[in-house]
Amino acid sequence: MKEFNRGDRIGAQMHRELALLLRDAAKDPRLSEVTIQEVRVTRDLSHAKIYFTILDKDEADYFAKVLGHAASFLRRRLGQIMKTRTVPELKFVYDSSIEEGKRLSDLIEKAVSSDAREEDG
Length: 121
Fold this sequence. Notes:
Oligomer: single chain
Helix content: 40-55%
């Protein structure tokens, strides 16, 4: 079984804590709509890229800006919660992989149904 390196462990803890902070401690109530998908921490633990999703993909830019403004608050709160010497700088990135997966799934279904119609006709 593969063990996690330190960056993975810190990323997993940041993932849990950020989800709770966005739900409970954020001043903007709309931030509770944000779902943290993944946290990737650099090897030297200086930066963390946080991938998030929301229900309405049209508002992704808005939420990226709001989260960017809240990054210093969230980083400070993470520093109070986590037992690490330093907390990485936070960069929030919208994760479009779910929409991309749905688009590819729709294309596959369309191709399969098209093939089935050609075989019947």
